[in-house]
Amino acid sequence: MYKKILKVDMIQVEEKGFYIRVVCNKSEGVALSLYRALESLTNFKVQNSNLTNISDCFALTFTLNVRDGGRRRRRSSPVIRIIIYVIE
C-alpha cells in the first residue's frame, strides 16, 4: 500500500507560529515517515505534536514556530516538506 496524504490543514496562530494537521492513510512506515519529516524541519521549532489513529488513517497535529535568524520562508514550506517525506 502506498503512503498517501489525504488532507492538510495549516493555520497561522501567531506571527511566527503555525498549527498544522496532516491526515494520511495508515500503512507500514507512515508514522515513522511523519516524525522523520518533523525532525527535518530545521528552520522551525516544533512546540508539540500528537499522532492519532482514526479508523484507517493517521492524523498528525503539531504546532511550530519559525526560528529567528533564518531566512524567510513561504507559509506552505513545512507542509511541502512533510508531503515529500511521507510520499518517499
TrEMBL record:
InterPro entries: bHLH-TF_ACT-like_plant. It is found in: Nucleus. Keywords: DNA-binding, Nucleus. Residues 13-65 form the Plant bHLH transcription factor ACT-like domain. The keyword DNA-binding applies. This is Plant bHLH transcription factor ACT-like domain-containing protein. The lineage of its organism: Eukaryota, Viridiplantae, Streptophyta, Embryophyta, Tracheophyta.
